[in-house]
Amino acid sequence: MQKSAGWVLFTLVMMPCFASAIDLKLSIVAPDALAVEDAVVELLPLNADAAVSSGDQKEMTQQDRTFIPFVLTVPKGTRVDFPNLDRTRHHVYSFSEPKPFELKLYVGTPQEPVLFDKPGIVALGCNIHDYMQAFIYVSDSPHARVTDSEGQASFTGLPAGNYRLRVWHPWQNGELLETALTLPTENRLLKYQIGIDRQQKPSAPPAGFGGL
Questions:
Q1: What is the rounded CA–CA span in Å between residue 83 and residue 68?
Q2: Measuring CA to CA, which residue among 124, 154, 121 is closest to residue 138?
Q3: 89-132, pLDDT tens digit by residue?
Q4: DSSP-derived 3-state class of residue 11
Q5: What's phi and psi for 70, nearest 5 deg?
Q6: Predicted model pTM
Q7: Which domains does the chain have, with CATH numbers?
Q8: Were both Cys, which of 128, 143, 168, 201 would link to 43 (CB 3.0–4.6 Å)?
């Protein structure tokens, strides 16, 4: 009987914790109402100190003379590997203020990953292949996602509270979208619009047209 009473007490205590975990999906569209892929959706908690954990090590792969993914988001303090799966050598670099670095000509995977310890946007390039381009968005929040081909970003287990929502895209025109968001909200699917100049993702040119 005491065991049952203890279990009931444990359940009652834990229920508010489970109830406060919120699942949310955000949809990002352009003014033409079409989905925006590769947009970073960041939720910055305002009423609590959110612990930013680096979590798992991430990868920015080079394959077919292309960075994959085009946009990667990582929490501040994350280490990123840059494996080169091509036969040709790459020379990866960035001049961006949050993380200037370079990985000189190499194939395979460099021995040491790169630590991204300051928030901001890091533009990547290759000194050998000018058409190679990608971005790493280093977040000051544990809640940042990149939209999929349907323009959606999904969050699970969000704590209730007040947030500042930020949306960024490499091709964005106009001001960065920032707005207040309070959770929980009646709608679990929220839609926001940003202006972008649509382009083709960077890819290797056909052989004979500058490709190496």
A1: 10
A2: 121
A3: 999 999 999 999 999 999 999 999 999 999 999 999 999 999 99
A4: helix
A5: -70, -40
A6: 0.87
A7: 22-193 (2.60.40.420)
A8: 143
